[in-house]
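debug: dumping io for the single-chain case to check the tokenizer round-trip. Nothing else runs in this session.
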Amino acid sequence: MAKLISVNSLSRELAAELDRNDRFAFQRSMFARPAGAIYLDGNSLGLLSQPSEAAVLRALAMWRENAVGGWFHDDGWLTAFSRCVDRLERLTGAEHGEVTLGSSTTVALHQFAATFFQPKPGRDCILVDDTCFPSDSYALRSQLCLHGLSPETNLIRVKAGADGLVEEEAIVRAMQGPVVLAVLSAAIFTTGQLLSIPRLTEAAHAQGILIGFDASHSVGAVPHQLHAWGPDFAIWCGYKYLNGGPGAPSGVFMHRRHFGRSAGLAGWFGSHPERMFEMKPVQSPAPGAAAMGMGTPPVLSLAALDGALEVFDGAPIDELRAKSVELTEWLIALADLKLGAMGFTVASPRDAERRGGHVALRHEHAQEICRRLLQKGIVPDYRPPDIIRLAPAPLYNGWCDCWDAVTAISEIAGS
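debug: decoded output
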């Protein structure tokens, strides 16, 4: 890729050639785009695919033709649930039984905090990165309150450096204290910085700390080996790079070392499938991560995710990651060439091994620039106070998308 991003080689003609030779051209053709739009916001909400739309229509037909029988049909709603779990296990490097589906990442985090956060005198704090997604912070603060603890005192936040990036060594140092649970970002939602799950997991376990990761901004764009890396749990949403649609079920990983642990928040769908309909007042938990299940899954959203994950069957995650790296390298090179003298800085790590699937640009007028990009039919994402996020999803974005977006930014900034 180095030869492609030299200043002298950058051109829209080269972008068009790269698009013509895209390994994932077939997958790109499966996605619907807003009319006339260049869509670079797949790290907020992925696009609708043909298999996803078809799966929702099948679920509706199942409801229409079978009513409650849809639960028990050979290719019914429970089958779709199991199919999603199997695909997510493969996609995240989990072993059989280590993944299930939840309702949302926030609910999943509440479940794991209720299950794993067991404070005692001298070990009563939760550790987070200061750049964690706000909903994670809200959930953990409320969990501390439920234990009669102070969010201001017992939620330890590791600050980002002057460059906006989080130093892993600072996280490791913060573990040497009263921390009993750590919840960190696999990919930080603002800058796209990747944190090392294996390194931080090893450091946490050395201090007797249980650790989990919010992988919402990495699953579907970055390969994972969750079982081998060994975190105690992980959560992720289904609607960003997985393209499962708004409100898609979340993914839930629990390492098998915790199999048999009682769920902090018990619910109907955490029951053993063979005993679920015995209707006894005392629950018989499901085996493995499925014991963390709570309410009945929303079937229409489940169907959308089921179809969306089908697309990944023909798109190996390692190859998607390679394309994602090429696209973000291309974006950074274009930003250096076209925007460097216009007050923009690249907020994402330049080292691809430390960068997820999007590129963050900083500019004092980021919000206004995003507003004007939308008027031009280009869909970015703004994060206050000064970040423009550009997420070239490798399943459906290409090099011309990136070229045209950066060109539009330069035209807006220069006007």
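debug: round-trip ok. The two ends are 32 Å apart (CA to CA).
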